[in-house]
């Protein structure tokens, strides 16, 4: 059995890119281990920057996820340059490499050339500890309807991707693992989605994160 496990363990069966719904594409294992470690290091730099990790307060309740933003600071339901609900400091800029990363992510998910004009001007980097979740929501505080590019690092999570009309069924649960890319744009851009749970201790040893999960979403705000 041990041998079969080594040959056909979950980690070794290739997971192919898949379109869950028109505009919603999951590309498993898109980031190399080296890229994952490098992004985890950048995340640590951001959290040591002008605005620390913080829990946004949604309808009076702090989210269990803690977030640091680049480019624009997000709070429900608006973007500002300064983190007015944290310490008033201006957030770090979106680095050029992140725009290139977003473009190649779209090329990978939707085909060569799909990312040519994509210019994300904000990134929300979320940290999930063992118990953190994110309820079903739409990403709709952006004026632009350009795709959202999502990158996962560290522990695996159960991600729920639903429909544009309701928080409820139909939806599909997928596992997002360290290195996975998920893109939602086009007809799926306003689909409800959320993180049902994190699976502690599932991060690969070489991803640079011992505990917890990081998710980075790149977006175009459409603001100037
Ligand atoms: O953590 C995730 O995979 C999703 C994050 C998300 O939906 C958000 O930041 O709006
Ligand atoms: Fe979201």
UniProtKB/TrEMBL annotation:
It comes from the Bacteria. Its cofactor is Fe(2+). Residues 119-222 form the Fe2OG dioxygenase domain. PROSITE patterns: FE2OG_OXY. SUPFAM superfamilies: Clavaminate synthase-like. The keyword Transmembrane does not apply. Keywords: Dioxygenase, Iron, Metal-binding, Oxidoreductase. InterPro entries: Alkb, AlkB-like, AlkB-like_sf, Oxoglu/Fe-dep_dioxygenase_dom. The keyword DNA repair does not apply. Pfam families: 2OG-FeII_Oxy_2. This is Alkylated DNA repair protein. It comes from Tersicoccus solisilvae. The gene is alkB.
């Amino acid at each position: 059995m041990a041998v079969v496990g080594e040959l056909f363990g979950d980690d070794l069966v290739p997971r192919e890119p898949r379109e869950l719904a028109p505009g919603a594409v999951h590309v498993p294992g898109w980031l190399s281990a080296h890229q994952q470690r490098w992004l985890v290091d950048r995340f640590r730099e951001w959290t040591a920057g002008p605005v620390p990790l913080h829990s946004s307060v949604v309808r009076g309740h702090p989210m269990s996820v803690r977030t640091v933003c680049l480019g624009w600071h997000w709070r429900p339901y608006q973007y500002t340059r300064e983190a007015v609900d944290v310490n008033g400091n201006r957030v770090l800029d979106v680095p050029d490499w992140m725009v290139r990363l977003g473009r190649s992510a779209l090329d990978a998910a939707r085909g060569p050339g799909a990312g040519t004009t994509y210019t994300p001007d904000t990134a929300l980097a979320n940290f999930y500890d063992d118990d953190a979740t994110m309820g079903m929501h739409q990403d709709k505080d952006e004026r632009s309807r350009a795709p959202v590019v999502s990158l996962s690092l560290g522990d695996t999570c159960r991600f729920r991707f639903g429909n544009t009309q309701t928080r409820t069924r139909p939806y599909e649960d997928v596992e997002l693992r360290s290195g996975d890319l998920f893109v939602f744009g086009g007809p799926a851009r306003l689909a409800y989605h959320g993180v049902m749970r994190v699976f502690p201790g599932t991060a690969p040893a070489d991803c640079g994160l011992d505990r917890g999960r990081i998710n980075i979403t790149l977006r175009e705000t459409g603001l100037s």
